[in-house]
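Q: What does the assembly look like in three dimensions?
Context provided by user:
Components: two
Sequences:
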Amino acid sequence: MVHGAVRITMDNSAQAKRPEVETGDETGAGQSRTALVMTTIRQRIAGRSLTPGAKLPSVRSLAASLKVSVSTVVDAYDRLVAEGAITSRPGSGFYVANQTAPLALSEIGPKLDRAVDPFWVSRQSLEAAENDLKPGCGWLPPSWLPEDAIRRSLRTLSRGDATALSDYGPPLGLSPLRRLISRRMAEHGIEAPPNQIMLTESGTQAIDLLCRFLLETGDTVLIDDPCYFNFQALLRAHRAKIVSVPYTPNGPDLDLFAKTLAEHRPRLYITNSGIHNPTGATLSPVTAHRVLKLAEQFSLTIIEDDIFADFEHVAAPRLAAFDGLDRVIHIGSFSKTLSASARCGFIAAKPDWIEGLTDLKIATTFGGGRLAAELVHDVLSDGGYRKHLDVLRARLSRATVEVSGKLQKLGITPWIEPQAGMFLWCRLPDGLDAGEIARAALAKNIVLAPGNVFSASQSFGGFMRFNVSQSLDDRLFDMLREALARR
Amino acid sequence: MVHGAVRITMDNSAQAKRPEVETGDETGAGQSRTALVMTTIRQRIAGRSLTPGAKLPSVRSLAASLKVSVSTVVDAYDRLVAEGAITSRPGSGFYVANQTAPLALSEIGPKLDRAVDPFWVSRQSLEAAENDLKPGCGWLPPSWLPEDAIRRSLRTLSRGDATALSDYGPPLGLSPLRRLISRRMAEHGIEAPPNQIMLTESGTQAIDLLCRFLLETGDTVLIDDPCYFNFQALLRAHRAKIVSVPYTPNGPDLDLFAKTLAEHRPRLYITNSGIHNPTGATLSPVTAHRVLKLAEQFSLTIIEDDIFADFEHVAAPRLAAFDGLDRVIHIGSFSKTLSASARCGFIAAKPDWIEGLTDLKIATTFGGGRLAAELVHDVLSDGGYRKHLDVLRARLSRATVEVSGKLQKLGITPWIEPQAGMFLWCRLPDGLDAGEIARAALAKNIVLAPGNVFSASQSFGGFMRFNVSQSLDDRLFDMLREALARR
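A: Here is the predicted structure of the complete assembly.
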């Protein structure tokens, strides 16, 4: 298994970026004078008061203003040249290098232990070898997905229209699929005509496009605590300020929700409807109604991520159904119940937003996966898909009971008994640290999802999310038993 | 045909956003006092001196500072409430609405006539009906693409491994395809081991990810004049400052290139290698070498977009081959020669950048189209693909001669005789405006690409790009003849 090696490489490269002088040049406690000058210049560059290409203060003037010797400034400038932050042009002076550091997502926001970093579970799950166990991942094993229907649809496509195989799709995405999604949404009480639906390449890309469309750098975004870890990763990429509200079995804690809106005035709230990730909770109608009233009062826009819709036995309320796509944007994808290999998601929103989003989609991805959309449309149109869902839901229910029982025997307790879906959000026995157990598990090729990966407030160190469909192998419980015994 | 209608809707909605008061409340020339107050507040909101949620000055204090009556300010605030820019809280005052305007790409940068807006050709080409002519689009008709090979590969996939059909791909993308791309790049003299190659969902998405990775808001980016119009659209989405340098038949004008680097210190240069879009020009080895020397001198990073590689009869020099992926990033896709429906592109860059880009890719798209990558890999591995390219290149050469001849008869002159590819960059007879002709053509369901769509300096109003593979229908020449006669 390659994970350890990959991580080590990353850590090394991160360390290599740190300039040696911060410890190397010190004689006692605190920074040396040279280091002080370097820090001053670095801060001016980081804060953009010195922009790339700008000329630095002359050695003499900086020495005078910082009350250090000329040789200290010369030394500091030389070291900054050596590390590539500035360049020297003989006879002219020193200039800020153009080579500003590229975006390092893992360095935005509070620095986290890699084991509870939002990227951690994603990377480990995606990099896992075929025989690794992935109870921490967020998707079903291939054998749980409608394999035969996909194979049939590929054969249908292979005999189909050449345009479908080779050409770009229309800007909004394949019309028949948008019509079908519109009808499916109507079943959840959401009115969205096909021209208010734009296809994307995934649910993640849908949220990303919306963040680009709605957020300015530094805007505040509200998420649930806990919530799907990639929301945090995505918001880091947008350099948004993150605030969070505890999630209860019926939705967000309403008092704290109201208080947070009043205090932080977030621009956006990103949440799951239907089945909440990671808790498996469902929004109650009363909570949904109050959330929308508060959203209206504080001019909040809501992105409702509904990717688990097809797992539900009984449909939970949708914010978009109450709101009519006014301040709620509804997104979804087919990665969880159909295929994660054929990328296809969608955004349903008000017409003028769809117009602006289409320009943004063309500018940033151009055509948008027509072949995947054709495949998804074909599978969804097949009568077999509903049967597949029936079988899948029953299988998940059985797996939930089985895994829940085995975990409880070990003293690992589900927070709630979820109505549907693949996740069990569990409390570990007191005093156990989920991050530590996840690290130990990784050494045995088992990818777990420790609670704090999902938590902006980092208050779920004693929790863990289990994907029941990926938790049926006894190796998992052997490992957990061992880890619990060790404490 | 629906284009006209779509455009009209857009124009209407843009107008609807303009507050009526700017004309409605005037008694003479210039703005009314109410309008003046509204403009003042709007500018403070736009300039972020009044941020969302902030309290507005009291009516009395604003009236005093602007030297207008209290009733004028009351009137202005009421109108701003009506248009949603501010909200009123009885007993408390007026506040900036949280609902800041979402990103409108078409409103970033200088306002262009829609006919020469970079989005125009994209939207019209993607929205065109099957029987419309698209000499202005940037891709081949489906019948020119390896239809049989794609059908074969779909059948192969339909019999293949379930994981390929249903599961997410690894973070960097499908290994066998990355190895194959690595070998293909080696044929162009570019050394890129598979772990320095990351798959993306398209060439456009590759550039988008790189811009997100490398640019800060307000950074300057250098492009060719003319260049692929979507570079401009994409850079608008990143709110980058755009500078451009004229493109000559051998690459960028070197004197102006050097001058622009010295003056504007761009962070990035985005260009096509191989065959240049829209001119069909190829970089000479001497120019490539000088461009790289200047890039080094001015710490410039270069994105080399190589999506036309497979059209070449003889390989032109690649910047990445000389540079060894140090300051050059090499990107490509298979949309032009294999399929635009199966989205798949790639980025080749230095290892630490690939590491950061992978985090960014996961955060913003998660898995990344495995099914498309499997299909592309299967088609590329098929011996038939090289034969397809041989046939395609010969077909394009013949079409180029034919279309060039017909255009010249009309007095429309190719700027150069391109060595390969699908584009003819043509000068119209003196005094003709390409934008006007494109507008007239659209009324006849013909999508053209007027020169200024490609030009940051807007200096190609007398030029037009023809895609020879989409220019073989006599209706095009009839229409052009008519347009030319009309002058």
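Follow-up: Chain A touches chain B through 95 residues (CB under 8 Å).
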